[in-house]
Please model this.
Amino acid sequence: MSKADAAAAILWVGATFYALFGGADFGGGFWDLVAGWDDRGQRPRDVIQRSLTPVWEANHVWLIFVLVVLWTAFPTAFSAIFTTLYVPIALAALGIVLRGAGFAFRKSIVGLRARRAMGATFAISSVLTPFFMGAVVGAIAAGNVPAEGNGDAFSSWIQPLPLLIGAMFVATGAYLAAVFLVGDARRGDHELERYFERRALGAAVVAGALAIAGIFALHSEARYVFDRLTEQGLPLVILSVLCGAALLLVLVRGGRRPLRPLAAGAVVALIWGWGVAQFPYLLPTSLRIDQAAAPDPTMTIIFIVFAAAAVVVLPSLGLLYTLAQKDLLESEH
Amino acid sequence: MSNLLAAREQMAFTLGFHIVLSCLGVALPATILVANYLGLKKGDGAALELARRWSKAMAVTFAVGAVTGTVLSFEFGLLWPQFEHRFGSVFGIAFAIEGIFFFLEAIFLAVYIYGWKRLRPWAHFWSGVPMVVTGIGGAFAVVAANSWMNQPQGFTLNRAGEVVDVEPLKVLFNPATGYEVPHMTLAAYMVVGFLVASIYAVGMLKGRRDRLHRLGVVIPLTIACIATPVQLFVGDTAAREVADHQPAKFAAMECIEKTGDDQTEYLGGICTKDGVKGAIGIPGLDSFLVGFSTDTEVTGLNDIPDDEEPPAHTMLHLAFDTMVGIGSALLALGAWFAFSWWKRRDLPRTPWFLRAVSVSGAGAILALWCGWIVTEVGRQPWIVQGYMRTTEAVTEAEGIWFSFGLVLLLYAGLGTGAVLVLRSMSRRWREAGAEEIESPYAPQTEEVA
Model:
């Protein structure tokens, strides 16, 4: 494995963490959005808020990590993506601001109308942000980003595949969030547990259906990625399907088996399947990983930073999640 | 050209907004922990209550800072893609390191902010310490990146101008890192110290003279007043370094038209080709400040090629003077406070002192903005001094004016929202009244982990 390949793998690790944890936080916003009016939606909203409050900022840092690794290790790919897909990227950035501010403001104020407005801002932007991020990823996979950048600002992503991947990002976040929230609701409230189990089931079915539609869209719009996904990437696709199916089974039978590893497994396998399918391209099929790579000493810094992340950040994140799961952190002001 | 102006305005605006919040991220944790420590050590309920309130306020400002900081990361690609394209592998090194600090700060900030009720008091205190360290570490990394833009080194270009080799340590520890990093870090402590003190000074002027308000002035003001003299020393060194390494920036900010010795130091005024109008001039002082002798030769704008001259000399000059002027006034305020404390362990009695403190926060922020204008506008027309012009870095994307307009609206909402939320929190705390001021920590019982 070359240094550039290793840096690309680090990029994928960051993206995986962001998809799992950042994705679930956006999914929390989705369930907040559809929880119903004030009284009816109060209890699920409380669980969502309790679950997100201490962790969403830390989870958000994975996005910064991905951005920084991308522009430092693969600067040409970064500029190509940003000069082509600036419309969905700017919309995602807008969504990030509104999501974060809406959430932080809502839990710090008391007035009902202001809380409603902030809550709506948080929830709606939680749906739009992953959608546009998915459109960016879909446009890259479809090969719509030319290596030299400045691709078409609209036709590069207003296509079936990017839009489908955008929808899939929303559904996957909702699916992860519902599964995580089942666990959070379990600590005390069986009715809510059932509530999120039903939603996890629904989101799993929708995300699965979108994934199948995505495979067809890949076939017509991203042939390189499709071919490799169904050959080299096939074991990972199968693993993802198995995890998803097992989770559905557990949910339908109301089993007590741990749901979270299965949900995470389905998503992780799919992300790495995508990685394998793109290899050796960062931008299929115009820019290879080695063509975009920064000089070696820069890669060495990326490795050192990644090692530091593994040694210091991951245990700290573990501590934060443990404290949150043991209810040692409050969520109210 | 129009795209360039729009992109620069948007960058300046979003950075100017974020920099205040990043000061809070860098320096508020230490301020909170000082109050927390005093509270625990002396059993002082008011100090603990302050620490708790400030941490809850920090939850809001950190969230807003996290998203506005993210906007800046996006803007590197949205507004300056060619800069990243050419120098991302160099400049990004500092940001990769910053990522780790930001991560740790976000994690421990959450543990600290949300751990008041259920963690043991001292464990809770120590969970906050990493915030202080990572705040300073993050400031180091981000400012080192900016220092590198001012004094780039540590990379090799091929004939096509592409980076083919990088020396990370030289990038991180470029000559400007040595003064920019302490200058910005101290600025963060000054902004936070004076800002927090000014809020409680306003409260005291309204007649709220309880222990909580007094401590709310004394703790942050002490921190700011320790930082201020050090800052003036660092800033003075920084100005000399700029005169050495970025003579165009220095000549513009000091309105020096002609190279020569015995340069006059101008306070205020308007820079023109025929000299400074309406300024107070102190003959020879500028040369003296640069080289400790009036014989020191200082480069003037006549020796800078026209296409390498920074724009808006008068604005740079006034920004520089405003920063130094405010810094000096804050130094005097600190001396007043120190004298009174030394004499009788108390704040000066006159309301004029509280009035001065109550505007010091805004003053410190204004000085901070002025300093950044000097650094950033003074570097123009370069984005990477001597290597890449800002015109070469800017995006070709359309609609930057539109995006700038949208950003103005969005941030107006963000700023208003943050201020309203903080004010409503403060009102709630006041209304909750005395019974809350006993201890923010839960009574310690056996089952509390």
